[in-house]
Amino acid sequence: MKFFSFFKAALNELRKNSFRSLLTMLGIIIGVSSFIAIAGLIQSATVIIKSKIYTYGRNAVSVSSEGKEFSLQDCGKLKSYIRDIQFITPVHFAPSLSAKYKNRHIASRVYGASNDFLLIRDWEIVNGRKFSDIEISSYQKTVIIGNTQKTVLFGNIDPVGKTFYINGAPFRIIGVLAATGKALSGRDFDNKIIVPYTTMGRNLAGKSSFSEILLSVSGSEALDSTIGSIRRYFSQAHNSPLNKLKYIKIFTSREKLDSAKNVIGILALLLSAVTIVSVIIGGINIMNIMLAGVRERTKEIGIRLAVGAKRLDILAQFLIESSLISLTGGLIGIVIGLGINITVVYIIGWPFIFSVFYVFISFVSSCIVGVLFGMYPAHIASGMIPVQALYSS
User: Fold this and answer.
1) Residue 14: which domain range?
2) Of 139, 255, 365, 385, which sits with the fewest C-beta atoms within 10 Å of its C-beta?
3) Do residues 41 and 146 share a domain?
């Protein structure tokens, strides 16, 4: 029962000085709202970054050469040599070729690859079809275009079956890829054209060898063993010891994801440090205001002690007041932080991720701050000698 009476008294005290109480809470509100907003945005950013990286391929491995280039036979031999390989394709790549339809044109990224390229990258064809074996083997000028090419060159017209030009050469469109959006850097993932690797080698690249092989494995646990097997294969194929194969570069989607996670982790640590400082400043502010409250209420404390109140009662009274200030500030901060998070992700088009864990951490932290920074003022108040308290007032 005492707790409820103390709680009611603390609530009345805060209401009596509502404006001062709000200013006291301000540091906690800023700290907690910053933490909730930042944590939510980091979670949303993580989801977005993962989705962007997975457009590269969920368990993809890129093998490139800065020396001797690869042949089509390398792809077949690698798939036979490494059982974990699911899909594999040779890749030609041109970063900027002119694509034109009537009086419209766009600089396009052009890939020469097989149908496995689409499976590795998890690119979905929403209109049309993939390449036929005959189109690949007979060097036919057919293409699958990205959503950007569809929008810029054809607008509302169905592009499937239409003929357009890449660097002046006519190509027939057989498919359109689903939109995948943009990278955080602003790079357009939908600006792409896929051509059969045979056709691109003959008509656009001017060579039959490749500087890149792209493959995917059955699971992330197979990535390390696959990388080792790839190095051993090329060591045998090129008759070169492993330590001389520095011109063979191997990258995986996991490395890209790990790099992104490291950046996010560092950013989270920096922003969390700022948030912790804000909460500590808020706690110090609570302690200062509570100390001022103790001085203002010296006579009240003296009277209560004189008529029989226990020092533990005085201690509890002031601890409940400081905790209530901190907890209220924390709850307000949680609401404001969620509001900021929802608003920002809505504006920039990110998914909203609600985390019970971060809300719980904020709630508990507010309670702890209230108790820790209220302990000293409560101790001062409970340690007063009744006669001196009444005399000093």
Assistant:
1) 2-52+259-392
2) 385
3) no
Asked if 380 and 301 touch (Cβ cutoff 8 Å), the reply is no
The model's pLDDT over 264-281, given as tens digits with 9 standing for 90+, comes to 778 778 777 777 787 788
Say whether both 214 and 278 belong to one domain. no
Query: Of 192, 214, 246, which residue sits at a domain end?
Result: 246
Q: Measuring CA to CA, which residue among 278, 376, 294, 287 is closest to residue 330?
A: 278
Per the prediction, the chain carries an average pLDDT of 83
**153 and 99 assigned to the same domain:** yes
The residue assigned the tokens 């390229």 is 117
Task: Check whether residue 105 and residue 235 sit in a common domain.
Answer: yes
Instruction: Note the pLDDT tens digit of each residue in 58-82.
Output: 788 889 888 788 889 999 899 888 8
Same structural domain for residues 221 and 342?
A: no
**pLDDT classification of 176: cutoffs 50, 70, 90:** very high
Name residues whose C-beta falls within 8 Å of residue 156's C-beta, 6 or more positions apart in sequence: none
My answer on whether 230 and 313 are in the same domain is no
Question: CA-CA distance, 181 to 345, in Å (whole number)?
Answer: 16
Q: Same domain, yes or no, for 197 and 326?
A: no
- Whether residues 341 and 206 fall in one domain: no
Q: How far apart are CA 267 and CA 283, in angstroms?
A: 24
**Is 210 within 8 Å of 217 (Cβ atoms)?**
no
Per-residue CA distances from 319 to 52, 76, 127, 282 (Å): 49, 74, 67, 16
Among the candidates 211, 246, 281, a domain finishes at 246
Res 29: pLDDT: 86
pLDDT at 100: 94
Tell whether the model's pLDDT for residue 154 goes beyond 60.
yes
User: 296 pLDDT band (50/70/90 cuts)?
Assistant: confident
How many structural domains is the chain composed of?
2
For residues 27-53, give the mean pLDDT.
80
Q: Which helix (H) or strand (E) holds 106?
A: strand 104-113
Whole-prediction pTM value? Answer: 0.64
153 Cβ contact partners less than 8 Å away, ≥ 6 residues apart: 99, 100, 101, 104, 105, 106, 145, 159, 164
| Rounded distance between C-alpha atoms, residue 111 and residue 58, angstroms | 19
Residue from 76, 71, 102, 97 nearest 87 by CA: 76
Residue 114: is it exposed, middle or buried by C-beta count within 10 angstroms (0-12/13-18/19+)?
buried
